[in-house]
Amino acid sequence: MSEIFSRTELLLGREAMERLKASRVAVFGVGGVGGYTVEALARSGVGSIDLIDNDVVSESNINRQIIALRSTIGQYKTDAAKARIADINPDCTVTAHKLFFMPDTAYLIDFSQYDYVVDAIDTVTGKIEIIMRAKEVGVPVISSMGAGNKLDPTAFEVTDIYKTSVCPLARVMRREMKKRGVKSLKVVYSREEAMCPDNIGISQASGKIVPGSSAFVPSAAGLIIASEVVKDIASSVSLHPSSR
Asked: What sign for the dihedral angle of Cα 102, 67, 220, 60?
């Protein structure tokens, strides 16, 4: 095992590190939450990471997205994340998909090749599609609920979608999962009530309300997600059949 991961190996053991090295994880959304997830997965020894996002880095991302720097403004987020991973662990295989994932583009992604799927996107329709596709092929999936307009990073918890409260996005996802017969779904969500900023931002591009955000709330959610992925893979008896 590379010296890079020697401290992690002290915690998890060599066999677990080999499982992480042999695993392939897909991260949908490489923004405030997903960017930190990707970073932590790369620093934990995950051997293959797929990045799915079609957005580019903007100046307004710098306050909360780990891939957002002055030097990366204008770059595709998948490209910026791929470059960071190469600088962390050049042995990690990174596949970048410049793709806005929705039902009409879902056919471009083969979920059966993954050992774990991370949903870190904002669009409800896309989130549902990710979850259902992962469930259909028996791949573990973890989904991020709302992180906007919140200030307390300690309010996040990992639970089943049907045990969530407070979060409006989680309420929508509970209803949608129930309609589709999904019995359980691991999520990361915040128990903090969303704040109502005095100055509501409106996106000039879409005309939609832009939520306020900080450097420490999305990052906390992203790191929690990564920890769940790493722990689940490290403790698994065997990987998904596609990785054997």
From this structure: negative
Query: Hey, what's the torsion of the CAs at 97, 103, 107, 110, to 10 degrees?
Result: 70
pTM, whole model, 2 decimals?
A: 0.92
Could you give the 3-state DSSP secondary structure of residue 115? coil
With 0-12 / 13-18 / 19 or more C-beta atoms within 10 angstroms meaning exposed / middle / buried, residue 204 is exposed
DSSP-assigned beta bridge partners for residue 186: 142, 160
Beta 141-144 vs 116-119: how paired, if at all? parallel
Strand order in the sheet with 24-28: 93-97, 48-52, 24-28, 116-119, 141-144, 186-190, 156-160
At residue 239 the predicted structure's pLDDT band, cuts being 50, 70 and 90, is very low
Sign of CA dihedral 215, 160, 120, 230: positive
Helices 77-88 and 32-43 sit at what angle, rounded to 10 degrees? 20
How many whole angstroms separate alpha carbon 223 and alpha carbon 210?
Answer: 23
pLDDT band at 241 (very low <50, low <70, confident <90, very high): very low
For the chain, give the number of residues.
244
